[in-house]
Design a protein that fits this description.
Strand content: over 45%
Distance between the termini: 128 Å
Order of helices and strands: HEEEEEEEEEEEEEEHEEEHHEEEE
Helix content: 10-25%
Number of strands: 21
Length: about 350
């Protein structure tokens, strides 16, 4: 046996040197970055939220100058850290123009993202009440009412309104309802600010329902472009706005105005404005497929007087042959010129000023 001592039984043959202790600078730096970044974001959010509140107040003041006074019974602002949220209890707009009136809802909840504060989406809780000296008080109800707006400078560039299960009631009678209704308006891209694209649509629309509740729902769609549209101010009477539009040479280009229901359909296209005597001037091309079915559906839905259904056979006689969505149809080219209206070459009579 060698004179060197044998290793102790059970002891490892080799023990690695102790690892060097890692310095915590990386973790400390990461933690500091998170804390400083969070503090900076918080400060930036509160600064931006303060600016947003100022912009809201400035917008409300500008609206008041246009004859639309907005108010809230209670207003709360929040949404930290990634959104701006405004909750308005009993939002009300009062029109101070010649027509007067007001509109209000139960509650509004508006939201905008921090990185896109000019795009605001708001939901309104019903019921709402619309009142005016001329029409009295109308109650509006809905299951969902959403408004989306995109700003450009101090004005709106685009506005959209969509509602589900919408109904208008007066004196306990529902005079209009729709399973879905929507409205969109925007400044036409590439055109001046006075040119607007307008679109609207309804699904399952009905008017005043009968005692038996019979109502065949109607679908409708509208798409048009209007030029020389004056700024909408409640302080101006409707006739004054029309006069300003006519004086500026405003025109409406009707791309589509469609109604369908009961197996029938109708669509109108054309372009129209007002001449120097304030009379309609332009052409409207109306096409109807299965006019008796459509007019019967409109009457059943409470959107057309019942006696007008009897005119359906006559329409097929005076209309020109055409097609609508591939189905046989009757076409009616109406012309408005010099205070007269004609159907093709057939004079129909005179038409007076619009205001």
């Amino acid at each position: 046996m060698s004179q060197q001592e044998a290793p102790v039984s059970g002891a490892p043959a080799y023990a690695p040197p102790p690892a060097a202790r890692r310095k915590p600078w990386f973790l400390i730096g990461l933690l500091a970055f998170i804390v400083i970044g969070g503090a900076g974001w918080t400060a930036a959010w509160f600064y931006a939220s303060g600016r947003a509140v100022q912009e809201i107040d400035r917008w409300m003041a500008a609206e008041a100058e246009r004859g639309r006074s907005w108010s809230c019974a209670d207003r709360q602002f929040g949404g930290f850290p990634f959104r701006f949220e405004l909750i308005c209890t009993e939002p009300t707009v009062t029109f101070t123009g010649p027509a007067g009136g007001s509109a209000k809802a139960t509650r509004a909840h508006a939201v905008a993202q921090v990185w896109n504060p000019r795009h605001i989406i708001a939901e309104f809780d019903g019921p709402g009440v619309i009142s005016s000296p001329q029409a009295g008080e109308i109650t509006a109800t809905w299951s969902l009412l959403q408004v989306s707006g995109v700003g450009r400078g101090n004005d709106l560039d685009r506005l959209s309104v969509a509602a589900d299960d919408y109904a208008l009631t007066q004196g306990g009678t529902v005079f209009f309802g729709a399973r879905h209704a929507e409205f969109h308006v925007r400044h036409t891209p590439g055109s001046d600010a006075a040119t607007l694209d307008i679109a609207a649509g309804v699904k399952g629309a009905t008017g005043v329902t009968t005692a038996a509740g019979g109502a065949a729902p109607i679908d409708g769609a509208l798409e048009m472009t209007a030029t020389q549209v004056p700024e909408w101010r409640a302080v101006l009477a409707p006739a004054a706005r029309l006069q300003a539009w006519q004086a500026a040479g405003g025109r409406v280009k009707l791309l589509e105005a469609r109604l369908s229901g009961g197996g029938g359909a109708m669509n109108a296209t054309g372009e129209i404005g007002l001449d120097p005597e304030r009379r309609p001037s332009g052409t409207i091309n109306l096409t109807m497929a299965n006019a008796p079915a459509l007019m019967s559906a409109l009457s059943a839905a409470g959107l057309m007087p019942a006696f007008m259904v009897n005119l359906a056979p006559a329409l097929a006689v005076v209309g020109m042959p055409g097609t609508l969505d591939g189905a046989p149809a009757s076409t009616f080219p109406f012309t408005f010129r010099d205070g007269r209206i004609s159907l093709g070459m057939l004079p129909l009579g005179k038409i007076g000023p619009a205001f």
